[in-house]
């Protein structure tokens, strides 16, 4: 155990250490490349040689050549804030080969280049600052659009997946639905915001900042989950279903109102992180992704099989299945159902927090009201999948595919109405869900087969 803890600590320290040599902030790089085109000689083609971090805090260096036969030169751009600060786009100084720009020239540059709508994009388009695609594919308008929407659906499913898994763990164990998981995901969103603010104060950015935000979110929600489990969930474990649902609905409203009073009713916004677009394919319609979305999808694709493997083969997974199948027999064999239920609630809270943190980082903010909608959608994904962990992941994919597919083909204003109608029809035709099984009768009692 000590060796594992040491390895984990070393990995975290290495990750934090690598954060100091993270890449240049993408938004600051775009602005500095545009500045290079503005300070270059007129009527010359600007070729970008390199974009690196300059000497000093919040400084970007762009090396470029203008015209044939000219030696490469550099322009340094200083910004008010770092990658996670509010002043990340505020240009405060520019140094060229001829010296520092005067305050009037800097003001002119900010007003007519940086702040003018679309001016930075047009300036970058005049250069050769392009990144090669990751995949050796050329996509046209049709195939590119389909691949782009497919990746969008996969990214959305990766956001729904952890929260749907949280619902399935509790539902599969107790047959109850915890209506407060959306608000626990909201706690994870605020935890991610706190983690990003902490990372900014420590000078950490990039992947390390994302990892710190997710760890803070999961830890915070696990503590909340433990407190909620001990005070609300476990005392009602043997109560009828109706009081349990009423209690969890009341808990969700109480958590939402508490965070509204504590954090305000408005949105809490974050600076975009890992948002530099990456071309997956080339061609007329290149498929674009961001590193953050690619990271979320990769973690979901790798993490789901690992989770299911541990759930099937670990001691906790065996105890979970024993309590789910027969709590009395599990108790007779030495497994305490209340302990397993409490541990499951903490794990489910951490999963819900990971989903909430991913949404906060992906969409750039959170609020005290975000829990209701994402909680209901994740619950729908869980029910569509049949209430099992694997089914919850499958339900998340189905729900995301329906949402993205409808928005891509039809009017987005009717998306939620149409998707819910399709889900309702699906549940009417297959009440047990896509991966669920009907209960069997054995010796006069209902036994789960999942």
TrEMBL record:
One GO MF term on file is: transmembrane transporter activity
Protein localization = Cell membrane
Q: Where is the signal peptide?
A: 1-23
Q: Which GO terms describe its biological process?
A: amino acid transport
Q: How does it sit in the membrane?
A: Multi-pass membrane protein
Keyword annotations of the record: Amino-acid transport, Cell membrane, Membrane, Signal, Transmembrane, Transmembrane helix, Transport
> Transmembrane region positions?
153-173, 180-198, 204-224, 292-311, 378-401
| GO CC terms | plasma membrane
Checking PROSITE patterns in the record gives:
PROKAR_LIPOPROTEIN
CDD domains for the chain: TM_PBP1_LivH_like
Q: Which residues form a coiled coil?
A: none
Predominantly, its location class is membrane
Q: Which InterPro entries match?
A: ABC_transp_permease (IPR001851), BCAA_transport_permease (IPR052157)
UniProt record similarity statement:
Belongs to the binding-protein-dependent transport system permease family. LivHM subfamily.
Protein name listed in UniProt: Branched-chain amino acid transport system permease protein
Q: Which organism is it from?
A: Prosthecomicrobium pneumaticum
């Amino acid at each position: 155990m000590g060796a594992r803890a040491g390895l984990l600590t070393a990995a975290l320290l290495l990750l934090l250490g690598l954060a100091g040599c993270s890449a240049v902030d993408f938004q600051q790089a775009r602005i500095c490349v545009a500045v290079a085109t503005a300070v270059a000689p007129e009527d010359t083609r600007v070729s970008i040689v390199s974009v690196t971090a300059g000497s000093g805090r919040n400084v970007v260096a762009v090396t470029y050549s203008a015209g044939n036969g000219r030696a490469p030169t550099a322009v340094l751009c200083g910004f008010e804030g770092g990658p996670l600060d509010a002043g990340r786009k505020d240009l405060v100084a520019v140094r060229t080969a001829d010296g520092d720009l005067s305050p009037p020239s800097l003001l002119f540059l900010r007003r007519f280049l940086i702040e003018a709508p679309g001016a930075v994009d047009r300036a970058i388009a005049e250069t050769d600052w392009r990144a090669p695609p990751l995949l050796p594919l050329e996509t046209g308008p049709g195939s590119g659009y389909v691949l782009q929407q497919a990746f969008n659906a996969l990214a959305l499913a990766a956001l729904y997946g952890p929260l749907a898994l949280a619902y399935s763990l509790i539902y599969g164990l107790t047959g109850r639905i915890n209506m407060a998981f959306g608000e626990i995901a909201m706690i994870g969103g605020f935890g991610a915001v706190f983690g990003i603010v902490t990372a900014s104060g420590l000078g950490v950015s990039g992947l390390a900042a994302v990892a710190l935000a997710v760890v803070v979110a999961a830890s915070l929600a696990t503590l909340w989950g433990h407190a909620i489990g001990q005070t609300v969930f476990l005392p009602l474990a043997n109560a009828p279903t109706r009081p349990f649902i009423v209690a969890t609905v009341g808990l969700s409203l109480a958590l939402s109102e508490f965070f509204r009073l504590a954090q305000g009713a408005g949105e809490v916004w974050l600076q975009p992180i890992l948002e530099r677009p990456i071309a997956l394919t080339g061609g007329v319609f290149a498929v674009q992704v961001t590193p953050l979305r690619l990271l979320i999808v990769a973690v979901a694709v790798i993490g789901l099989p690992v989770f299911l493997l541990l759930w099937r083969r670990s001691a906790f997974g065996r105890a979970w299945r024993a309590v789910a199948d027969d709590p009395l027999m599990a108790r007779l064999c030495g497994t305490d159902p209340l302990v397993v239920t409490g541990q499951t609630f903490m794990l489910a809270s951490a999963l819900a927090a990971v989903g909430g943190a991913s949404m906060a980082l992906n969409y750039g903010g959170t609020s005290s009201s975000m829990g209701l909608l994402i909680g209901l959608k994740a619950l729908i994904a869980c029910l569509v999948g049949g209430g099992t962990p694997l089914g919850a992941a499958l339900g998340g994919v189905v729900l995301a595919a329906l949402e993205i597919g409808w928005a891509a083909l039809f009017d987005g204003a009717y998306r939620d109405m149409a998707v819910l109608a399709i889900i309702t029809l699906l549940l009417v035709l297959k009440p047990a869900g896509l991966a669920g099984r009907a209960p069997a009768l054995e010796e006069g009692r209902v036994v789960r087969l999942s």
